[in-house]
Specification:
The protein is α/β, with parallel strands linked by helices. It has helices spanning 2-20, 27-33, 45-49, 70-79, 119-130, 152-168, 193-203, 249-254, 288-298, 319-336; strands spanning 37-41, 84-90, 133-138, 173-175, 208-211, 217-219, 234-235, 261-262, 265-270, 304-308, 345-350, 353-357, 369-370, 378-396, 404-413, 416-423, 430-449, 454-461. The chain folds into two domains: 23-335, TIM Barrel (Alpha-Beta Barrel), CATH 3.20.20.80; 345-467, Sandwich (Jelly Rolls), CATH 2.60.120.260. Helix 4 runs parallel beside helix 5 (119-130) and helix 9 (288-298) crosses helix 10 (319-336). The radius of gyration is 24 Å and the shape is globular. The termini are far apart. It binds beta-L-fucopyranose (FUL). Beta-L-fucopyranose (FUL) binds at residues 52, 177-179, 268, 275.
Length: 470
């Protein structure tokens, strides 16, 4: 009996300790969450050879942009509302866009600017000038480096990381691609990711590191830019590897409800079919409406959108892409300019009574409502007249973890329910789009949660109808 008692006590103790160990975002991850949308830039020899995966035996001279202007990239990125740029400093072909001392296949060996050019220097300066954050993609897979496929290559990779951090940092994000193929000697590399991670933590502790399984940011499991409707920022990584040994794509897409690590999803997708520029894809640039739809399916599901915009052979963002991007920005502005919930009457309905509140309708991300007794609480937003609404945005505070497991949004006209939407996670931002409804109030019920949910904001909009049809 005594034994059963102590086993039970131990079990409860263990459960409490486990529950308390819920992963939390770091300061750097919270700042990353708030970036929402930023650019990817794929640029290098592939731009000039029309390939997606260079073989690494391309002549360095092939890299010769005629009008390269990183300020033009940064200007357009900024005008499109992006918060930063991550560039392929080195793709799988091994070509370095800066004069690395650890490679003989770099801009220095090319005829571009007589070997004196440096794309990373130009872009890091341009990002500073335009107030953008800067990040790099450094492909571990290298089809050019003679030491690839031997233990010595891990030293090369570590040294290259340090070189980048020292000369072009600080970076907001560092990208480790999961691809791992053969190098020039026909061998694959055993990447020493433990060492790579130690290097990042030691030399760039404020940089978030991306790969299939983090450590800080995870791949969303597809290259279409689409996060799961259920999207947890938690992920279990034990037993998994980057690349082929990664968790199933569904897991990457949705996270793990009880995952032990905070590793939110990033949605990488290209504005064109390919990652690199190809002239024959000039008429396949995604439309502003398609980009808006991607925004809903990435940022609107609590992930970040990493949109690839590849410069052309001139070294400029092509006119077709910039036109689509400007219109994409205009659509977002037009859609979210008029928050109908802002300043509306807001109430908390609890067992103890009805209380007037402003925290979740004040448009201030710093103020939030913590729902300790969420099962007996509902949040109401009441308009002063009947309004047309086809979009509701919910935002959860994440500092103490992601809590909401399931919720119900009820749209009412007077006391009449006109529609309800059942959802699972909310996360940083959940954008719900539906056919236009005439409503006078919105009610949010949290049905199940991992702890007291923190609701930052409920907002309501009338989006242009063409955007809700996709
Ligand atoms: C993949 C790479 O193989 C593609 O070329 C591209 O860089 C994409 C973002 O990641 O793994």
């Amino acid at each position: 009996m005594k034994r059963i008692f102590s086993v039970t006590v131990l079990f409860f103790f263990f459960t409490i300790v486990q529950a308390q160990k819920q992963a939390l975002p770091t300061r750097q991850q919270l700042a990353w969450h708030d970036m929402e949308y930023y650019w990817f830039i794929h640029f290098g020899p592939n731009t000039f050879t029309d390939k997606e995966w260079g073989h690494g035996d391309e002549q360095a001279d092939i890299f010769n942009p005629t009008e390269l202007d990183c300020r033009q990239w940064a200007r357009i990125a900024k005008q499109s509302g992006a918060k930063g740029i991550i560039i392929t400093a080195k793709h799988h072909d091994g070509f370095c866009l800066w004069p690395s001392q650890y490679s003989t296949h770099t801009v220095k060996q090319s005829q571009w600017k007589n070997g004196k050019g440096d794309v990373l220097r130009d872009l890091s300066k341009a990002c500073k000038e335009y107030g953008l954050k800067f990040g790099v993609y450094l492909s571990p897979w290298d089809r050019n480096h003679p030491q690839y496929g031997t233990p010595a290559y891990n030293d090369v990779y570590v040294n290259t990381m340090k070189e980048l951090i020292t000369h072009y940092g600080p970076f907001f994000e560092f990208w480790w691609d999961g691809a791992n193929g053969e190098g020039p000697n026909g061998k694959k590399q055993e990447y020493d990711f433990r060492r790579f991670e130690q290097t990042m933590r030691r030399f760039a502790p404020n940089t978030v590191v991306f790969s299939d399984i983090g450590p800080d940011i995870r791949w969303v499991g597809n290259e279409k830019g689409i996060a799961g409707e259920t999207n947890w920022n938690y992920l279990d990584t034990a037993g998994f590897k980057r690349g082929e040994g990664a968790p199933p794509t569904d897991t990457l897409n949705q996270g793990n409800i009880n995952g032990r690590n905070w590793i939110p999803a990033e949605c990488d997708v290209s504005i064109r079919p390919g990652w690199f520029y190809h002239a024959e894809e000039d008429d396949k640039v995604k439309t502003p409406q398609q980009l808006f739809d991607l925004y809903l399916k990435s940022v609107g599901r609590g992930a970040n959108l990493l949109l690839n915009v590849p410069p052309d052979r001139r070294g400029l963002i092509n006119e077709k892409d910039s036109a689509a991007l400007m219109e994409f920005k205009a659509l977002r502005e037009e859609s979210f300019a008029n928050n109908l919930a802002f300043g509306s009457k807001a109430e908390l309905h609890t067992k103890g009574g009805i209380f007037r509140r402003t925290k979740f309708t004040d448009g201030d991300p710093a103020s939030a409502e913590t729902l300790a007794d969420y099962k007996n609480t509902s949040l109401w937003v009441k308009f002063d007249s009947v309004r047309k609404v086809n979009c509701v945005v919910l935002q959860e505070g994440l500092t103490n973890g992601q809590k909401v497991k399931s919720a119900k949004l009820i749209l009412l006209n007077g006391i009449q329910e006109v529609k309800h939407i059942d959802i699972t996670t909310i996360g940083r931002k959940r954008i719900l789009v539906f056919p236009v409804q005439d409503i006078s109030s919105i009610r949010l019920l949290i049905r199940d949660a991992k702890g007291a949910p923190v609701i930052k904001e409920i907002s309501a909009y009338l989006l242009p109808e063409e955007l809700t049809a996709l």
